[in-house]
Amino acid sequence: MKTLKTLYFLIPFLFTGVILAGSLTGNIKFDSKKVKKLANKKAKQQICGKGKSPIPYESVRVDEKGNFQNVIVWLKTNKKVEAPKDPVILDQLGCRYTPHVFSLVKGQELRIKNSDKEMHNVNSQSKINPFNAGQPAGTPDLVKAWTKTEEPFKIKCDVHGWMSAYGIVLDHPYVSISDSKGNYKIENIPPGEYEVIAWQEKFGDKGKISNKVTISDKDTKLDITFKK
Predict the structure, then answer these.
(1) What is the SS3 assignment for 37?
(2) 5 SS3 class
(3) Smallest Cα–Cα separation from 74: which of 167, 206, 164?
(4) Which helix (H) or strand (E) covers residue 29, if one does?
(5) pLDDT (tens digit per residue) in 145-189
(6) Candidates 3.40.50.2000, 3.40.630.30, 3.20.20.140, 2.60.40.420; correct CATH number of 22-227?
(7) What are phi and psi of 8, to 5 degrees?
(8) Cross-strand partners of 165
(9) Domain boundaries of the chain, sorted by first residue
(10) pLDDT tens profile 122-131
């Protein structure tokens, strides 16, 4: 009987542990007089651009309404998780890195592919895991992993100067990258107070934006505006 009473007492707490998780959503804008010009800007092209669609200017991906794409939004927290078994794929296709911005959990594999018929060079500017490797067409994927966390770093191609990608390595999954409409969403966040960081490559570390939020078991809204 005591065992049953104990179970009845614990059941609400067990369910509370599952249910009590919130989310953080919002929209990111770029407030600038140059928004319309940047929305239609294309990258300078060389060999890979011949006969193909123009490569967009990826350093500032924004639409005419100012919706800001490829902004990394993450929480600062001591909570940690094990690295996912599935790798993150970074492909070189059409002389672009796809995706342009990615996130890893510490220890998770980054698998770098070359789907082009071109020679590429993968030059990681990471302080934790720097590498510089040629990757001719048809060669095996490059597989890398980070043993420590790292805030945003650049990967570039020395053969095609417009090619770049940016990554972040965290020890938790509470991160999102804004989509083409400037929207982001971080889910399954334990309730509590957090610092939220928003980072975009053109603004860099000096221009990153920090906010404080309180997460409950519901959705919390936080819109962010970069100004220039």
Answers:
(1) helix
(2) helix
(3) 167
(4) strand 22-31
(5) 999 999 999 999 999 888 999 999 999 999 999 999 999 999 999
(6) 2.60.40.420
(7) -60, -35
(8) 155
(9) 22-227
(10) 999 999 999 9
What 8-state DSSP symbol labels residue 69?
-
Distance CA 202, CA 206 (A): 10
Angle at 112 between CA 109 and CA 117, to 5 degrees: 165
How far are the Cα atoms of 49, 69, 102 from residue 89, in angstroms, in the given order?
23, 19, 9
Q: Give the pair of three-digit tokens for residue 157.
A: 């191609």
Per-residue buried b or exposed e for 36-50, using 16+ beta carbons within 10 Å of the residue's own CB: eebbebebeeeebbe
Residues 129-156 as b/e (b if ≥16 CB within 10 A, e otherwise) read: beeeeebeeeeebbebebeeebbbbebb
DSSP H helical segments within the chain, as ranges? 2-19, 35-39
pTM of the prediction? 0.88
90 by Cβ neighbours in 10 Å (0-12 / 13-18 / 19+) ranks as buried
- Give me the residue label for tokens 């800001």: 68
Which residue in this structure is represented by tokens 């938790």?
172
CB 73 within 8 A of CB 176: yes
